[in-house]
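Task: fold both queries, return tokens.
Query 1:
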Amino acid sequence: MLKTILYIALGGAIGSVLRFLTTVLVSKFWANHFPLATFLANIIGCFLIGLFIGILEKNQVTDSNLKWFLVTGFCGGYTTFSTFGMENYNLFQNNHSLLAFGYIGLSIILGLFAVWFGLFVSK
């Protein structure tokens, strides 16, 4: 268990640093109101989680430290949106479309409300 946690922590640290560097790089070339760095990190993270899971499944390495490092650690540190994307993809693939749409809608609406409420409580 401790070894797994260390793999996740290492991947998460690398993902978090790369998320920061994505913001630094994008801000050098983009000065607009649209949050391009976050958007790109989310899309890149979704691509990477799909790529990593696909490669791991193709090579029958679905329960390994590499999966914990890449998927949970790195992608989780880079963006949790990648996990959100993968979970919804799985719901759609398993014919749970209504549940997927509910998850998407509730996540967005309640997420925005939670941000507002956190700001409200802090004042």
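Query 1 returned. Query 2:
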Amino acid sequence: MIAAQSELSMRFDADWMSRADDRILEHLSEAGPDTPKKMADSDRVRFSRQHINDRCKTLVEYGLLVHLGNGVYDITRDGEQYLAGELDARDLEAE
């Protein structure tokens, strides 16, 4: 438990991020490509499908996710680096 907490504290989130973003990124990192509906149905994400969909679009704008088509999203290398605490999201700019 302590390791997980210290891992989370290493992440540098940005003002544009919401509480759902880390859960979405963690889910996609572990489960692979997925849709907002399936993420909403999972025990890990626990936000509405619409909120997850909105957040996925924002995470795509900042390069942490990629939209694969047909409502399927996947985490990018930058997203993985953010989760590992190797990338400061405050340095990202929307495309």
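Both queries returned. Flag for query 2: The helical segments are 2-9, 19-31, 36-41, 49-61, 77-83.
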